[in-house]
Specification:
It is built from nine helices and 15 strands. Helix 1 runs parallel beside helix 9 (329-348) and helix 3 packs across helix 9. It has 352 residues and is α/β, with parallel strands linked by helices. Helices cover 30% and strands 18% of the residues. The protein starts with 5 loop residues before the first strand and ends with a helix. Strand 14 (298-300) and strand 15 (306-312) form a beta hairpin. The strands form four sheets. It has a six-stranded mixed sheet with strand order 6-2-1-7-15-14, with helices on both faces. A four-stranded antiparallel sheet has the order 9-12-11-10. The protein has helices at 13-24, 55-65, 72-88, 113-125, 138-147, 176-183, 240-249, 263-268, 329-348, and strands at residues 6-9, 29-33, 45-46, 95-96, 106-107, 129-133, 153-155, 188-189, 196-203, 223-225, 254-257, 277-287, 290-291, 298-300, 306-312. It has two domains: 6-190 and 288-348, FAD/NAD(P)-binding domain (3-Layer(bba) Sandwich); 198-282, Succinate dehydrogenase/fumarate reductase flavoprotein, catalytic domain (Flavocytochrome C3, Chain A, domain 1), CATH 3.90.700. It is globular, with a radius of gyration of 20 Å. It binds flavin-adenine dinucleotide.
Amino acid sequence: MEDSQILIVGGGLAGWRAAEAAVKDGASVTLVANGAGNSPHIHALNCPVLPEDSVRQFVEDTLAGGRYGNDPVLVETMCRESLSLKEEFDFDGTLIRPLGCSVPRCVSIRHAIGPVAIAGIKERLKDQVRVESRTVTPEELVALRSARPEMPIIIATGGWCGKYGFSTNPGYMKGDGLRMAEALGAATKDVDEAHVQYEPTVRVEGPRRGIPVITTLLYEGARMLRMDGRDLLPDTRVNKDALSRAIFNAGGYAWYDLTDVPDEKLLECKMDLSERMIKVAPAPHSSLGGIVIDPSCHALDQDGNVVPGLFACGEVTAGVHGYNRLGGNGGTAAMVFGAIAGRQAASERGRI
Ligand SMILES: Cc1cc2nc3c(=O)[nH]c(=O)nc-3n(C[C@H](O)[C@H](O)[C@H](O)COP(=O)(O)OP(=O)(O)OC[C@H]3O[C@@H](n4cnc5c(N)ncnc54)[C@H](O)[C@@H]3O)c2cc1C
């Protein structure tokens, strides 16, 4: 990384979006990652594409979904900037309605927008980014900061739900980025149980234990049943948070009944048609707290001041989702804030 102008830690969607934006603005970049993170699982993300939808409606849904614990300026930024994704990507017409969204807003490319987007970036960047596969430590960044104070560092290490035993995240996603940021003087917030998003419908049995079954099927005829076969709620099309609570209150497990979901809807979601009754439980899925940032992705200290040369983006940051992340907003946040962080770091390189 000695001859690079910018260091990015994290090789998920946020990290790669930052890399692309920084390279586009003429910066030389090293990206270090110890795995693929959660981004390869992103099948769809939110972008207001319908005529009856709007940035305002997207903002309102996101704030209401987060029970108004979000940072409104970050939410505004994400929703407004998401519009540019329409020009950037050739979405394939799939449009689904995540729980808690007032209209269908989740767009995709072959139900795999995360991996498709990252593959596209890698293809476009070819050899322009130096990539290192290894684990970065807070101590390493502190040493780098004192040796190369002019070099922007972007932390894009994703969430911390991997620290829980039964989780949808890989075990190495334990929140290393939070400790890196703190070691460099940045503040973190909302790193607590109240800011863990549970995915309500995670398989508990078989070889696919820990893999979630998509909740949007609740708009396509799927039902949630208690273990004794009774309906879990009169209407299960509530947000993920409320659904998880209902399952916990019913004893911790539920049946996800796909009997009445049309075959084509299951196939669209890459489901096995023979699987119609799946035992599920809520599992930690997305962390909602993390590094405190401003809308330009500068990391902030305890007093709200910019920590010079330090940026953060994606799931490692706090504030966008409040107490509950709407399905599809993880991908949108990674796309939008990844690009902002890359541009901002490129514009400040060499003059920190
Ligand atoms: C099963 C599943 C399905 C999901 N589906 C969707 C969806 O359809 N739509 C949606 O919007 N959101 C979805 N999400 C949420 C979404 O995946 C995340 O919000 C998003 O991927 C975060 O991107 P990121 O780049 O911030 O982090 P990640 O993609 O998690 O990347 C983090 C990177 O940091 C690296 N890293 C971590 N620590 C270190 C270290 N110490 N040293 C070096 N590298 C490090 C990791 O190896 C990885 O490369 C899903 C999540 C899961 C778990």
